[in-house]
Amino acid sequence: MNIFFVGDELVGGKGDPKALGWTGRVAARTMSEANDLMFHTLSVPGESTGEMALRWDEEVLRRVGRGSANAVVFAIGRNDVRRGVSLAMTRFNLANALDRTRALGFRTMVVGPPPSLPHENGPIAELAALVEEAAVRREARYVDAYGPLAAHEQWLTDMAMGDDGIPGPAGYGLMAWLVLHAHWREWLGLPDDN
Asked: Which residues touch 81 (CB under 8 Å, ≥6 apart)?
């Protein structure tokens, strides 16, 4: 199975001295038990949902084999907030991407935006709620990265020490934990690891 992580600089693990980010940690944990999976990280720093919706399917379709099973994880970052994209436009962009995954027959997961710096968190909380609603409406698995991390001590420490709201290794580890504990294995169709 091909698993595609699509999103911004957080998908690429920007600032992580281990060069794993949350996606690398998720892949490493999953690969240790299921070696027939192929992970692809398709990140574009600073990307908005509109830019993501325009590019993801071409990049993914180049990498899929005939008859292969495919899964896409859309990681919605904070760039729509930073670039002044309206909530209505974010909803439209995400709906288009999710409709396309359904048309292609891909399993789909959406990871919502994590908290950032205090002055951005009000709009990011609104964005996270909208992203969750769009994912649920389109029957995509949703992982809330905002709620569990908004008051998490280690996350707040990473935000205070980081550059422009970029987490450190502990923050990326927290994001990976959230994904891995959101019925990740079940979503991939893997045996339960308990």
From this structure: 113, 120, 123, 124, 127
